[in-house]
Amino acid sequence: MNRLLALLSALFLSVNATSLRAQDTLVVVELFTSQGCSSCPAADAILSRLGERDNVIALALHVDYWDYIGWKDKFAHSAFTKRQKGYAHSFGTRSIYTPQMVVNGVKDVVGNRPMDVADIVQAQANKGLPVPLKLNRSGSTLSIMAPAAAGLANADVILVRYTPHETVNIPRGENAGKKLAYTHIVTEWSDIGDWNGRAPLSATVPVNGSAPIVVLVQEKGYGPIFAAARLR
Q: 98 pLDDT exceeds 90?
């Protein structure tokens, strides 16, 4: 644990050294993780710290292919495994693994390597997302707005909800006997429409409950994320 804390400190010293240059530039970090994976708690902790930054949208997607090796992850969903496989195909690889982070839909990194994570997150923060996106919630209605973006590839508009944090006792599997903290746990993932950028994006969708809301605009076929916004 002391080694993990030291690595996390190194991560945020590295990230914060240039954060003033990109403090308003959003970065989307997806972590493919599992409660049954002994290499994942360090990555879960890194994602938690990243999620404290205002310019990072952190999303933990728990996959289900560890569920048959001693412990069933109660947050896991087959749709997240499918998404990870989609990224693997997009990146030209056949293998999937945990913990894997995918940043802005374009770069992947082993999620428990803090310096590698910091480098990719900062590079994407410096680059920025190409399209600004605005969200507004009024009661049970969410409004989504973005300006026209000429030359944009066909994209999916995706609505995400997540649980901010939860602690889990794990009696079996590779993490047996541990009490682990999880954050940014994705609970809903819905494709709510398509957009090609030729006209401004203007959409409304119903939403319920107090869970944070994230909207992503991502090139079809698990491509780059063009735009992102969050309401906590």
A: yes
